[in-house]
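Reminder: ligand-aware prediction takes two inputs, not one.
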Amino acid sequence: MSSAAPQLPSPEAFDRLTEHIQTFRAAIPQHVRIVAVTKTLPAWMIRAAYAVGIRDVGENRIQEAIAKRAELQDLPDITWHYIGHLQSNKAQKALDSFDWIQSVDSLALAQRLNRLAIARSAKPNICLQVKLLDDPAKSGWTVPDLQRDLAALGSFKNLNIRGLMVIAPYGLSTADLTKLFCRAQKLHHQLADSLLLGSGFTELSMGMSGDYGVAIAQGSTMIRPGQVLFGERQG
Ligand SMILES: *Cc1c(COP(=O)(O)O)cnc(C)c1O
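Here is what comes back for the chain with pyridoxal-5'-phosphate:
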């Protein structure tokens, strides 16, 4: 994203997108939060989602999100979710620019975020990214590693640990997706019941354009659709 002039749609294109997002939204159960994933897309598309009531936006590049926030200062009630892999040295910037960090994927990163949060007297919302199937393309806790780290995570008093974030590997059958998301739901319940991570541990973020239906059927509380809302990504 360069500092070029904002990209603006024709009124027709704006209305078309708005109608499409409205139709999508109407088919999603009310209790499921829609985090509209707008990485690589222009800020006006966030406006279109906003126009039909979406207030959660997901981005995976810090600079890109900062530029869009600057363009959308007249929409202050958007909740910004970081969903990309976060390098430790960008943790401070991520806390400055996002309301949620959904992709916390290691104890070291959680510890760093907690320290930074203490220094600024903040209590950011985070999710723990878990990896329930081997996927070399993705980071995240395996279940045994997460069990090992639970007590330490629970001791990070300045993190509001809200739930789990799951990314399904590309190309699974519906049956395998169902199994995966079902395991995620069980793990989420088990962790919530243990209270080790606090009472705010209510969210299960799973479901993207290709698998949100299966994810909702298996108890997702938060879906992260991108292309199904906005069409193909740019760049
Ligand atoms: C890109 C991305 C999405 C959205 O993907 P789509 O296939 O466009 O719906 C959701 N979650 C994460 C973590 C992503 O990186």
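The longest helix spans residues 174-194. DSSP finds nine helices and eight strands in the chain. We will return to this case in the review session.
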